[in-house]
Amino acid sequence: xxxxxxxxxxxxxxxIYSESQHDYSDKFSVKKCNKAVGxxxxxxxxxxxxxxxxxVAKFSELLTEEENRTNIWAAVHLLEKLEYDKTSGENALKxxxxxxxxxxxxxxxxxxxxKDFKLK
Length: 120
Known about the structure:
- By secondary structure, this protein is an all-alpha fold.
- Helices cover 76% and strands 0% of the residues.
- The protein has one domain.
- The termini are far apart.
């Protein structure tokens, strides 16, 4: 797969996850979400294995795509799994810090994520 195919598949997975009902009492819904997240990690791993800075830069463009929360997923995956340039890393951290500044469960999750990230 070329980088465009990987990115299109990644965006497809964020859409699948975003459109799912997230009904944790429904096994099908949970499996659908887990499968989409698993596939996103596989796609990022494919990019990581190539260790191609141009492909990582292309992936970093997803940080500006808010539809289906693609930018949030991309921010986490970029920081956790890829070798990135300074600007992309700063942009990804900015996205996560903005969410972490809230008062909901997601904010709390990202507050813990940031603490863990800073320890690395």
